[in-house]
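Sequence design from tokenized structure. All designs in this work follow the same two-part layout: the structure record, then the generated sequence. An example of the structure record is given first.
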């Protein structure tokens, strides 16, 4: 990826990893001047956010905390991997789900 594209989209990519509010703000900021680097990380965070919501509200209700706590820890580790990629200026897909997130949300960004 070109360093100019990364430099222009790096702040937006980092903002996207700061809660759902940050993801929404990053999406709006990236809407005017589409940046492929920022779009990549916004798609990753939308996917992680959806998995986190499903884990918190759906799985916890049916399976309890004993099952969903380890899943939450794994999701947090995936979040750290994505966040570190944004900080380093890399398009590093989160393990297991990165390709799926890019495919599902390809129209975003």
């Amino acid at each position: 990826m070109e360093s100019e594209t990364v430099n222009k989209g790096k702040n937006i990519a980092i903002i996207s990893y700061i809660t759902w509010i940050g993801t929404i703000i990053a999406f709006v900021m990236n809407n005017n001047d589409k940046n492929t680097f920022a779009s990549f990380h916004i798609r990753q965070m939308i996917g992680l956010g959806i998995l986190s919501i499903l884990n918190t509200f759906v799985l916890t209700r049916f399976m309890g905390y004993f099952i969903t706590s380890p899943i939450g820890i794994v999701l947090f580790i995936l979040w750290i991997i994505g966040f570190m990629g944004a900080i380093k200026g890399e398009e590093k897909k989160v393990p297991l789900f990165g390709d799926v997130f890019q495919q599902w949300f390809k129209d975003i960004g």
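Residues 3-104 form one domain. We note this feature because it recurs in several other targets discussed in the main text.
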